[in-house]
Amino acid sequence: MTSRKQKISKSSYDIIIVGAGPAGIFAALELIRRDNWSVLLLEKGLDLGKRQCPARDEHPVGCEIGCRPCNITCGWGGSGAFSDGKLTLSPEVGGWLSQYVGTEELERLIAYVDGIYVEYGAPQQVHGTDHGRIEAIRQQAMQDGLRLVDAPIRHMGTDRCPAVLQAMRNDINGRVEVATRTTVSRILVEDGRAAGVELQDGTAVRSRVVIVAPGREGSSWLVDEAAELGLEMTNNAVDIGLRVEVPAIVMEPLTDILYESKLLYFSKSFEDEVRTFCMNPYGFVSKEAYGDVITVNGHSYSDRRSENTNFALLVSTRFTEPFKEPITYGRSIARLANLLGKDILIQRLGDLQIGQRTTEERLERSTVEPTLKGSTPGDLSFVMPYRHLRDIMDMLEAMDKLVPGVNSRDTLLYGVEVKFYSARLELSSELETKIENLYAVGDGAGVTRGLVQASASGVIAARAAAEKMTD
Ligand SMILES: Cc1cc2nc3c(=O)[nH]c(=O)nc-3n(C[C@H](O)[C@H](O)[C@H](O)COP(=O)(O)OP(=O)(O)OC[C@H]3O[C@@H](n4cnc5c(N)ncnc54)[C@H](O)[C@@H]3O)c2cc1C
Question: Which residue has the CA at smallest separation from atom 35 of ligand 1?
Answer without folding.
Answer: 19
